[in-house]
Write a structure and sequence with these properties.
This protein has about 325 residues and is an alpha/beta fold. The chain is about 30% helix and about 15% strand. It has 13 helices and eleven strands. The strands form three sheets. Strands 3-2-1-4-9-6-10 form a seven-stranded mixed beta sheet. Helix 10 crosses helix 11. The relative contact order is 0.14.
Amino acid sequence: MALFLLLLSFSLLSISPNHALQFKEAPKFYNSPNCLSHDHTVNIAMTLDSVYLRGSMAAILSILHHSSCPDNLRFHFISASSTATCRDLNRTIATSFPYLTYYMYTLNDTTVAGLISTSIRSSLDCPLNYARNYLATLLPESVKRVVYLDDDVVLVDDIAKLAATSLGDTAVLAAPQYCNANFRSYFTPSFWANPALSMTFEGRNACYFNTGVMVIDLERWREGDFTTKITEWMELQKRMRIYELGSLPPFLLVFAGKIAPVDHRWNQHGLGGDNFHGLCRDLHPGPVSLLHWSGKGKPWARLDAGRPCPLDSLWAPFDLLETPFLLDP
Ligand SMILES: *[C@@H]1O[C@H](CO)[C@@H](O)[C@H](O)[C@H]1NC(C)=O
Ligand SMILES: *[C@@H]1O[C@H](CO)[C@@H](O)[C@H](O)[C@H]1NC(C)=O
């Protein structure tokens, strides 16, 4: 019966004629008998943009599918500030996930663009990458804890467990951290050569962490005004190159060595590998709760090109893209 309902709902197409991509309608998900707390809200923040929309849709479906209490989930989507874009994205979400509880926000990209150093632009410098800096102000005060996720992830475990990650008495955020990574490489030689700057990491045991999977205490963030602290480093970056491009280094400057760890099972990362050399990555040893296609390659692009990596088959079941035109001879 459940299977029949699932097949039925997958066969109903969501029609949004103004949109380039057509997505299927996801089934409705119900709290399962394993749901222990029916009123324990889990807040999830993600960005939405037309380029990575297919990834976001798969991530949302995977979260719902593995949640024992899908009714408890509240999604917070942040898009760029163009009204037309926001309306199109909202239409896609509303049509594919008619039962989802979600809220839409727009990031003022003018403010962010003014903070991004203009010397070299790359895809890493898209204003929406900086949305995670502004969650504490974008989301309402009533949201006290949020799970932030990149759009190239798929969950295979209950997000409530990730949301329950302990932040201890003082940490503002939790993220998967990697102390074997070469931390120095995220900053320029002129940063390390300037004691007034490099002193910021003194006595902190700073390690690289991934900002694509974070649990954030928004109350602590607001109290400490961390948006301003991150912004100050971005202002400095505009005047002198202290790091290579991207939204990660200002996060490292403010938080490295001060975060709580997220179990690495929630960030089986690097699965994107490298599109150019066609390298496929394997899973890291240990359990798997979240698959993260970080890196240059994306599973949907490889599947479309007919050259998927073996692990891309774990992403494919969550792909909501409707492909009637590709199937047409
Ligand atoms: C999104 O779409 C839904 C359904 O059409 C509508 O009720 C809601 O007001 C829209 N939200 C925004 C922010 O446009
Ligand atoms: C966005 O930010 C710019 C520059 O800070 C400001 O002039 C503009 O009014 C803001 N737009 C909105 C819609 O808040």
